[in-house]
Amino acid sequence: MECAEIRPRLSEYMDGVLDAQTMSLVEKHMLTCRECKKTLESFQSLVQELSDLHPIKPPDDFLEQLHERMAKRFDLKNLMRRLFFPFRIKIPLQFATAAAMAVLIFFIIRTPEIEKEMADIPELEDRYESVDKTDTKDVFEASRGKGALAPAPKVSSPMEPHPAQQLAGSPKETAPVKLASKSKKTAVKPRVQGKEYPQEPSAVKAEPKPSDKVATKAIEIVLLLTSEVSMGADTPQLNREMTDFAAPEKGKIRERRASRIGVTAPAAPSHALKGDGLEEDQGIEYLAEGEIESKDESVSRVLSHDRAPSRVRDLIHSLKGTVLSMEYDQNTGQPRSLDAKIPAGQYGFFFEKLQQLGTLQSPPPALDAKGPEPIKIRIHFIHS
Amino acid sequence: MREKIKQSIHSTLDDAALVRAFQAGDETVFDELVLRHKDTMFNLCYKFLRDYHEANDSAQEIFIKVYRSLKNFRFQSSFSTWLYRIAVNTCKNRLKSLDYRFKKRIKSLDSHGSANNNPSSDIADESRSPMVELEKKERSLLVQKAIDSLPGSKRTMVILRDIEGLPYDEIAEITGFNLGTVKSKLARARSDLRKKLRGVI
Fold first, then answer.
1. Is B115 near chain A, with CB under 8 Å?
2. Least CB-CB distance to B64: which of A10, A59, A73?
């Protein structure tokens, strides 16, 4: 064996862990190689030196120190063990707790949503209920006497004309009312047939509280009025400010020509005219019910277009609305426009009735507001 | 009195018997095991860590680990081998720890080094002259420094074989290396030390 093969084996040779054959070869080599023998001697000195390193004494209170350390460490462990159950109990308990927490959190989060859904349901039901269970009393009866117009229509379908809807003829009226409406009018029946509508906005239980808030923007309506002359000779041109014949009650107030006066309720004494005609722009004049306005007494006529605006006013009042103002044409003295506010819930019904009084130039716009919330409307009268 | 009697009885039992007694519920035998092996463990830690307090701290940690695991000891090796295994792993982990490395760096700046940290270092040999003693002390320091310079596994081999005097197969069992690896690592470690200590030894 060469020295390069021998030297790596000297450490094992020194410790006596070589196999017999290799050991024999190393010993044989050592007999002849001085360098390898020197290397072996240095290894032996090193090992001797390493083993001669004196041991170091540990502290005398090593055991006491150990006890102190263990007491701190294991007492805490025992405490933790006492506080928590063994795993076989602890883990299922933790799972059960986690599940309970999850259920609780779920309900906490869901409860407002559930309440909201529950709150919505009665609102819808009541709305439909009130449509189905309409009271036979007409809204008009309360203010206009028996046989008035049928209750206000549903908000959702304001423009459904109902064949059974009838225009009321006041038993107190002395003159027949002829309106330029396309639909026929029949006697108003106390009970509304067919579709029924809620009486009042407050019948809808879930509706919001009526407020005085009025839609800022007025709904514009153009109503075409046509006139029918009942008999005729010469028909003098009326040159008057106001031509409100249609007041079924006494004390109807006539507005000033070309002025806008806020009117809330008719509350003035009647005043009979005796063929003098009305003075233009002279304050407020009152007409007796059914009085004929004409200078020429030979002519008796009822002008539908004169009556329609007052009927519109009556209609507004019957719906618990308010006429805000009327504007008259300066030349003809005929009503040009009417500003009013009506409950939003009566919107559909109002238009139905309006169609009986005249021809709407265009379908009424859709309404966003609901219920008793008042809406502004402006009716423009066009006299044909 | 009762305690002393108990201690004397325990001292007659070998390690396996003490472990069985501990596993049976007699935790007082643990003290006997500590007293029997504390010096060895302390020195082993000192050889690895080269610091008295670190060695003391590590030695106590070794016995705490023994206390925790002794109930599960299965006698697949001797208690001594199992103890050494815990000790070597504890010292290796300590060597790798940042805290230890920081302290060592600080210590290396101090020229006196480990000598200051060992109040009861080398036991003086009264038979030798002071000069001889001084030379021996200086040589020991150099040898220890050379051991310190060895990488982890080589250092372990030298400590277990040449300082602790453990047999190859036990070293293999403690370290988890096979026998051939132990032999080759030890040979390389000794060769490195011989080169470092040329002129000293």
1. no
2. A73
Helices then strands, counting H and E runs in chain B, come out as 10, 0
Of A10, A49, A59, the CB nearest to B139: A49
Interchain contact, A56 vs B120, CB within 8 Å = yes
Report the distance separating Cα A151 and Cα A135, nearest Å: 9
Joined tokens for residue A27? 């010993």
**Residue B177 touches partner A, C-beta closer than 8 Å:** no
Residue A26 CB partners (closer than 8 Å, separation 6+): A1, A6, A9, A10, A13, A18
Cα separation of A384 and A372, whole Å?
A: 35
Distance in Å, alpha carbon of A74 to nearest chain B alpha carbon: 10
Classify each residue of A208-223 as buried b or exposed e, where b means 16 or more C-beta atoms within 10 Å of its C-beta.
Answer: eebeeebbeebbebeb
pLDDT digits (tens, 9 = 90+) for A183-203: 444 444 444 444 444 444 444
Q: How near does any CA of chain A get to the CA of B194, in Å?
A: 7
Threshold 0.80, pTM exceeds: no
A17/B168 Cβ within 8 A? yes
- Residue A381: strand, helix, or coil: strand
ipTM of the complex: 0.85
